[in-house]
Amino acid sequence: MRFVLAIVAFVVAAVMIVAGIAQRTVFAPPSRVEAAATVSGDPRYLVIDGSALNAHPGQQTLTVADAPQGVKPVVAYGRTADVKAWLGDQKYVAIRYQKATGGLATKSVTPKQAASASGNDSSKPAASATPTPAPSATAGATSGSATTPTAGPNPAGSDLWLEEFDGQDAQVTRMNIPDDVSVIVASDGQKAAPSRVTVTWPVDSSTPWAFPLIIGGLILLVIGIALYLWGLYTHRRSRGPRRKSGPKMPKLPKAPKYKPTAMIETTPRGRRSTRRARVILPVALAGALALTGCTAGTDAATPSKTSTPLATEAPDSADQMPPAVTVPQLERIVKRISDSATEADSKASADLAKARFTGPALQLRQANYAIRAKKTDEPALPAIPASPIVLSLPQATDSWPRTVAAVIESPKDAKGNAQAPIALTMVQKSPRDNYQVEYAISLEPKAKVPNLAPASIGSAVVPPDSKLLALAPEKVSAAYGDVLMNGDKSQYANLFSAEGDTLRTQVGADWKAKQKAAVPATASLAFTTGPGPGTDVAMATNDSGAIVWTDLQESQVLKVVEAGAEVSAGATAAALSGVATSKTGIQSDFGYQLAFYVPPAGSDAKITLLGFAQGMVSAKQIP
Known about the structure:
It is a single chain. This protein folds into 3 domains: about 55 residues; about 160 residues, no CATH class; about 300 residues, no CATH class. It has 15 helices and 23 strands. The strands form 5 sheets. Strands 13, 14, 15, 16, 17, 18, 19, 22 and 23 form a 9-stranded antiparallel beta sheet that branches. It has a 6-stranded mixed beta sheet with strand order 6-5-2-11-4-9. The radius of gyration is 43 Å and the shape is elongated. The chain starts with a helix and ends with a strand.
């Protein structure tokens, strides 16, 4: 018997070991699933829909190949609506997933703008809104003569993308994006995009039974060996000499089986049996009722209807506008702005500054460069730090222009003193434009920023003429200018808080009075203020108020009032006007970039200055 058990153990062990090894080798599942497509026609842009990338669970790996020689491929992804807005009138190839075949399907897409511009002729390339014409690898032929299509925009370096890869990094990229995000694949906008696209997803290739089968088979193998050795040892011992046994004992006779006769009753009869049956019946009924839950009393067991309050429906997420940028996207944008500003500041180049500055911020930087070119001791404007971002406030919108505000902590100066954080207000005018700084201010030391919406939700832009605030955004700069001119006598003085307002101390009514008193009798000094050329930007706070960025300009006119007298322009005004002295007068214009907290209408709170940036922006000799 032991030999039989050993053989069975050997067979089962062999089957288990072979099955375990086969699961890891012959029958091992694939480690990934793959879908590929080859695009024909040399299109300049490929768009892979997010649903195609999410056809299988797990992280997606995108591989692009067959790019034009000498051109670096570009792979970027963003919200599907943003990708299509960036493409605009450009033709592209849409790539989707086919469940039936398990592969990728391609479809050429011609936007309505491109179709109407080309007269629905697909052989003619669509015109681009921004780039200049350049030779393209996709030149078509019309009437036997070669034509050069208009170059398309280059997606590299766009602030619109959530993430971007180029060069070697673009050939194999790993991502994990949702359905509402799409991937754009291109080269430089002039030559064709890579024509081979492959998407792979990881597959669970684990074999949980392989190891237990192998271990179990080895254990059975050891048991079989032990049984075999035991049986062999027992068999050898049983082969020794045996003593002869004596005569066998006779078998005992079997006792007769008991058989009841008909004279014995097997079932009791009579009154006693009836009584016993009567006792058994109620007990059985009681047990049955207990098992059925007393179904006889259905009326008492039926539950009564109770009123249940209706749950309030949550707002549909589809109605919520997405934030203009994500936090990682904003960090990348601020880093690019910081690098661009550093280069422009180091070279004092107004042309370089135009790449990332606009409006009042550009005006102040251009003037500072011009002053520093002739006045070496003129301090430079505060640098734009790259990080860390301590506050992010994107606009919740899916259209353009888009506004984003950020507060960046400034590093300590050369002497180790703390510097005020820099608050940036950035505007993206169109999908293909990058964000430009419209306001760059330094926060006040005691500034208290009100509660704002989280960066993942974004804030709404308040209209300039809104009546829901204590003062409409378009009127804030003029009202504050009047306060700087007249101080407490201003009709708007009670609307603004003087606490922590260092600008009022520097250039307010008291300072202006001292400047006028210092002017000799041969000249006069006059101040005028008014709204600047910048755009008023207001973004809502959680208390129904708003943060308002506005531009204020102040003119100082130093005029000669006595014949033969002359006035000195000063070093700064002379650097901008080119005139050191004048017998008529000098007009100096100062720009003030301002950020205020404006409370809601009906609130007892006052308008608070959160920060500012100021400097001379122009100077000229008056006739």
